Amino acid sequence: MTNISVESTDDPPKLNPMSWKRYFSFSTDHKVIGVQYLVTAFLFFLIGGLFAMIVRAELLTPQLDVVDRSLYNGLFTMHGTVMIFLWIFPANVGLANYLVPLMIGARETAFPVLNAIAFWLIPVIGVLLLFSFFLPSGTAQAGWWSYPPVSIQNPSGHMINGEFIWLLAITISGISSIMGAVNLVTTIFQMRAPGMSFFRMPVYVWTTLSAQLLQLFCLPALTGAAVMLLFDLTFGTDFFSPFKQGDPVIYQHLFWFYSHPAVYVMALPAFGVFSEVIPAFARKPLFGYKTVAVSSLLIAGISMLVWVHHMFASATPNWMRVLFMVTSMLVSVPTGIKVFAWTATVWRGKLHFQTPMLFALGGVAMFLFAGITGVMLASLPFDIHVNNTYFVVGHFHYVVFNTVTMAIYAGIYYWFPKITGRMYSEGWGKLHFWLTFIGANLNFFPMHPIGLQGMVRRISSYDPQYTGWNVVASLGAFLLGMSTLPFIANVVSSWLRGRKASNNPWNATGLEWTTTSPPAIENFEEIPTVTSEPYGYGESHRLAVDPLSHLS
Amino acid sequence: MRTFNIVLLSIWVGVIIFASHTIGQQAYDWLPIAAAAEAEPVGHLFSFLVTLGTIVFLGVMGVLVYSVLFYRARDTSDAPAIRGNLKLEITWTVIPILLVTWIAIYSYNIYQRMNTLGALPLAHLHFVEAPAYAEVGNNNMQRAEQIEVIAKQWSWSFHYPSRNITSTELHLPVNQPVRLMLQSEDVVHGFYVPNFRIKQDIIPNQTIEFKFTPSRIGQYQLHDSQFSGTYFALMEASVYVDAPERYSQWLAETATRPPVPAANPAKSEHIQPPAMPLRSNWHTVPPAQPPLINK
Predict the structure, then answer these.
(1) Does a structural domain hold residue B108?
(2) A298, A364, A367, A375: which to substitute to probe chain B, counting the most B Cβ within 10 Å?
(3) From A145, which residue of chain B is nearest by alpha-carbon distance?
(4) Could you say which DSSP state residue A458 is in?
(5) Residue B193 maps to which CATH number?
(6) CATH number of residue A248's parent domain
(7) Is there a domain that residue A305 lies in?
């Protein structure tokens, strides 16, 4: 009898709950799912970056000399698709999954199984998209907008073609994101700890809530459009066929009704990360916390009413263009509030320049630039000149890379000790920051002047007058590719052998820092009660003060 | 000390405004040379946007850089717990509202003056005769040269109904309003001449009326500005803004030539694809039959 019982304890039928193997299982722990999202997304980030580097290699010279035109079109289509749907969305959702329950004092998310299903659809989408490169038809080649009719011309005549796979992947991605949004929104509404009123939630939770509400309101439009386009492509319906009573411009409306807010789905969590990191390293409360919090919802609300600014040169009547110019201008107001608030937080602070702070400040500075070019683009007559040129490409890369990806990096470094229980290497982190910051500006700044000069986006060969800036951009892109190496080396070696982290290495406020690093399965031994606003830096009623701070 | 700070701040504001003004003046040179009447106000608008943008950028960056330089922590203690300042927060909400209102009104005025886009939608028009609305339109537009622009994968052709000629070159008379009737035979294309600083998508099975006035003699490049498939980059055409005599001469000469199929870079590349290190061999849409042109 004794033998048997000893055997059963030595060989547990279930996985050890803290084993690394849990990351490869259908786990319903939000922390495991968070890490699964982040690691998976990062792998796709590398793949999407590789596509971008081939595209930039082609653009080193004016003439076509690396890839053929179909492959070029496939590469930029997949670059955009992978970066948006497999890197930024899942990376943000991963971070939110990990952090939101900890930040609001919950033991779990509201719908753990739904959450896990939402995650496991991500690798399915990735495999589908990458596999489409090996189809005889090739991958989708119509850009990530996939405007009909060019997107459904299907020259191969095969039923299973790149565009078919792409539309299927977008549909599945929509379903996955809606499931994730239902889970996160419900969690934030229903599972806050005692005392955690809305105006005690950290801004990161506010931004996640705003972003996920946008997913719920707007994503069905894109998912519906993708299904309709799939029907046009595969089953011969004519929703968007111009020569058969369909209307291709309706697709553009449906697409941008989601895809403009999508920019804020990506950017809002980045604003959230800045709002956590900057106060912690300036040792000051976030300036104007309530206005910053509320402006997240304002941004989300206004961003639902601006989509036609992507169609200023499309078949849109004058009144519509003017109306949407005005709404687009207004987005800059709540966004400006945030930038000014971060600046005021830094002002007269006691600044520490650890890696998360470098990424956050670098991200804010470059977002300022992106915001200014954004207001320019909202100006209708100017937009008509630069619409569909590299100026727009430069602008949105300053948003999606120089702001959002910088923020994701800042977030990963900032919460690395919490997630892994170990410290990352500061030296490697700083090297990573400088390579990324320099590479990103070299890569994306030159796109503005060549766009102003009239270089159209998505062209595989170009007029020699644009060569100079294109060479700079390509070299920047290669540097940016290299910049991921110190990050990977740092994360892998620190996770395996890094210094043990204390519970609150940054001496930061926020409930996530009151529990162990890494947190136990149920997050908190005892559900905390919240008694004050967040960001109590410099105040006596701090949530947790750690003598073993890693601030220097 | 207080006076000293105010003087310092005033100097700083002066420097920012001076620098922004200088950069705003430079901005004209960042755009291609203006070759249409509609391009001039876009240049002024851009210069204005760059000036305002530079003020905001330098203002905020100044505060950030100053903080990075002078507010470095010397120990691990916390900074004073300043949670906000209502007046300041109202200021930085109201000022941007005023600024964007200013930008929007300025942009609206310029857009009204440009007046490039005709009424939408215009579907299935025939151009044997001038459409009825042309007669009620303003005097300028009655004199406007009307040209049909036909986009297809991957060629441009320009039909001059008054002389019944077709060309792959777009010739326009200088300082005379032109009215283009934009049409596509397959997918969405875009009409974009950077020097004119105007752009319009072309939607298949619609005719979009597009008006402007070329203002500078020279040769320019027309680009397809909306992704149109495999040979998108090759879909270009030369645009000539001619003196009136030269223009009439070109029309007359071209009218005497018999129609022949045009040369087409997309078609030649499709028939004989260049060798590439990375080849996909994926199916592509074959280029449409090149237009018949008077050459």
Answers:
(1) yes
(2) A375
(3) B227
(4) T
(5) 2.60.40.420
(6) 1.20.210.10
(7) yes
The interface residues of chain A toward chain B in range 318-357, judged by CB-CB distance below 8 A, are 318, 321-322, 325-326, 329-330, 332-333, 336-337, 339-341, 343-344, 346-353
Query: How far B283 CA lies from chain A's nearest CA (Å)?
Result: 5
Chain B interface test: which of A289, A306, A376, A546 (most B C-beta within 10 Å): A376
For residues B159 and B248, membership in a common domain is answered with: yes
Nearby residues of B90 by Cβ (< 8 Å), 6 or more positions away = none
- Number of structural domains in chain A: 1
What's the whole-number mean pLDDT along residues A241-265?
A: 95
Q: Across the interface, do B31 and A382 touch by the CB < 8 Å criterion?
A: no
* Residue numbers in B near A317 (CB within 8 A): 117, 119-120
DSSP A351: B
* Residue-by-residue DSSP string for B129-160: S--THHHHS-HHHHT-EEEEEEEETTEEEEEE
Residues B289 and B164 in one domain: yes
Q: In this predicted structure, what is the pLDDT of residue B185?
A: 95
Cβ–Cβ contact A373 with B under 8 A: yes
Q: Are residues B148 and B267 in the same domain?
A: yes
- A277 found inside a domain: yes
Boundaries of domain holding A44: 27-514
- Please check whether residue A278 is in contact with residue A287, taking contact to mean a CB–CB distance below 8 angstroms: no
Contacts with B117 from chain A: Cβ below 8 Å: 317-318
Q: Which residue of A has its CA nearest to B86?
A: A288
Is residue B236 situated within a structural domain? yes
The single-letter code of the amino acid at A176 is S
Helices (H), chain B: 2-26, 39-70, 86-114, 133-136, 139-142, 244-255, 265-271
At residue A43's C-alpha, the angle toward residues A141 and A55, to 5°, is 35
Answer whether residue A529 is part of any domain. Answer: no
Which residue range is the domain that position B185 belongs to?
138-271+285-294
A509 inside 8 A of chain B by CB: no
**Residues B65 and B146 reside in one and the same domain:** no
Based on the domain organization, do B8 and B106 belong to the same domain?
yes
Do A381 and B41 lie within an 8 Å CB cutoff? yes
- Helix (H) or strand (E) holding A468, with range, is helix A467-497
What pLDDT, in 10s, does the model give residues A446-488? 999 999 999 999 999 999 999 999 999 999 999 999 999 999 9
CB contact under 8 Å between B63 and A347, yes or no, is yes
pLDDT digits (tens, 9 = 90+) for A458-467: 999 999 999 9
* Mean pLDDT over each residue of chain B, to the nearest integer: 91
Q: Looking at the domain assignment, is residue B239 inside a domain?
A: yes
Interface size between A and B, measured as CB pairs under 8 A = 313
Structure tokens at B249: 């001469």
Q: Which residues of A touch B212 (CB under 8 A)?
A: none
* B231/A349 touch (CB, cutoff 8 Å), yes or no: no
Q: What is the pLDDT of residues B11-33, one digit of tens each?
A: 999 999 999 999 999 999 999 99
| Same domain (yes/no): B161, B208 | yes
In a domain, B80, yes or no: no
Q: Is residue A552 part of a domain?
A: no
For residue B179, the SS3 value is: strand
List of residues 6+ apart from A142 with CB closer than 8 A: A73, A77, A150, A151, A163, B227, B229
d(CA B274, CA B262) in angstroms, rounded, equals 21
Residue pLDDT, tens place only, A328-353: 999 999 999 999 999 999 999 999 99
Please judge whether B80 and A538 are an interchain contact, meaning their C-beta atoms are less than 8 angstroms apart: yes
Asked if B79 lies within 8 A of A71 by C-beta distance, the reply is no
Interface touch A138/B280, C-beta < 8 Å: yes
Are residues B148 and B265 both part of a single domain?
yes
Is A297 touching B (CB cutoff 8 A)?
no
Please indicate, yes or no, whether residues B146 and B230 belong to a single structural domain of this protein.
yes
The structure's pTM equals 0.94
Q: Which of residues 463-502 of A touch B (CB under 8 A)?
A: 463
CA distance B169 to B175: 19
Domains in chain B, number: 2
